[in-house]
Amino acid sequence: MEGLEAIVRVQKNWGDRHNRHWARLKYLVTVKGIEWLREQVRDLDRVGSINFDLPIEDYEHGNIDLHLGWIKQPDNNNLWCFGAFIENGRITDGSRNGDLKAMVKYLMNNYPHIELFTTPNQHLMFCNIEERLKERFERDMEMFGYGFRKIDHDNNNHNDDDNITTGKTTLTHAYSKLRMSSGACVGRDTCRLTYTDSEKFEPYLIDDLEKKWGHMIESIGITGCEKQCYRPATKTMGWIGTGFNLYQVVIMGTHDGRHQGSILVDPFSGEQYLHFVPRKDVATITDALFHYYVRNRSEDEDRPGGMGYFLRRVGPKEIISYLKSNPKTA
Predict the structure, then answer these.
(1) What is the rounded CA–CA span in Å between residue 55 and residue 111?
(2) What is the rounded CA–CA span in Å between residue 263 and residue 248?
(3) What does the alpha-carbon distance between residue 221 and residue 257 come to, in Å, rounded to a whole number?
(4) Residues 249 and 202 sit within 8 Å (Cβ to Cβ)
(5) What is the DSSP string of 223-278?
């Protein structure tokens, strides 16, 4: 806690907190440097308890953990946590993901010993659940539509006889692995910096992709502007808002967080590609890159999270060549 407080104090003393475009700690580090930050933190260490060692270059942090589903609590008291997927961290009622606000209120009122936490990926963890209550807890969540996504389909293009009525058909299916690995920043409703509706766009992009690719344990990150709040470079594939309903692709990051992606630039000519992609074409390009990976991956890359490593291996020149030769993206 002393270390965290010292870091916050450095930002309070030195950060440009009056200019929202420049108010983050990362910009202070960019200007002053990481060594400067370390010295400032040491100077503010009032109790002398902070010992910030130099980074361990070969430190292995392990695989990403989204904290979803049932997790045994580590205190050996036979209690459980349930990690609930909250798409883009938005808890609302009447959405295509169910009545989440009513669900949270109901669970907190009917399970008196529960503690509620927010994860770093904006999901929820309900903790201190007894073993005997696990099945009941899941049933109570499903009562509010949790765990399932509703999608409207035109009956003329759909052949699921069980769901055919008139006009449009509402289908309900479980959250896909691709959906639970992906997300977006808040976008235009609540952020003055963003160019586009990243949060509203992401669920519909996944709707378009998951029929073919929902089984993929890969991540797509969408952010409304170059501030990149949803960290698109740390995903298998990122899309950064560059204008209203326009996005720039970021690839060659890896789902496990070990490598960061970058924009698509020809290494020889320096030309930049896919900088202003219209919203309607984002799914087409994403689908094409998934096909490229599945058809050309090596045995070692045929695994969860392997797509980023495949794209890093083939490199931007080959990726650009493939996209130019593909009729859908040429």
Answers:
(1) 43
(2) 7
(3) 12
(4) no
(5) ESSTT-TT-GGGSSEEEEEEETTEEEEEES--TTSSS--EEEE-TTT--EESSSEE
Helix (H) or strand (E) holding 284: helix 279-296
Say which CATH architecture domain 69-156 belongs to.
Answer: Alpha-Beta Complex (3.90)
| Superfamily, domain 176-325 | Sulfite Reductase Hemoprotein, domain 1 (3.30.413.10)
- Mean of pLDDT values over 135-150: 95
User: Which ranges of 15-146 would DSSP assign to H, the alpha helix?
Assistant: 25-32, 34-44, 100-110, 134-142
Cα gap 113→156, rounded to integer Å: 50
Q: How far apart are CA 227 and CA 67, in angstroms?
A: 26
Q: Do domains 69-156 and 176-325 have the same CATH topology?
A: no
Cα distance between residue 228 and residue 181, in whole Å = 17
Q: What CA–CA distance (Å, rounded) separates 40 from 200?
A: 40
pLDDT in tens, 95-123: 899 999 999 999 999 998 999 999 988 99
Residue ranges covered by each domain of the chain:
2-44, 69-156, 176-325
What is the pTM for the complete model shown? 0.83
Q: SS3 helix, strand, coil % of the chain, rounded to 5?
A: 40, 20, 40
User: What pLDDT, in 10s, does the model give residues 186-239?
Assistant: 998 888 889 999 999 999 999 999 999 999 999 999 999 988 889 999 999 999
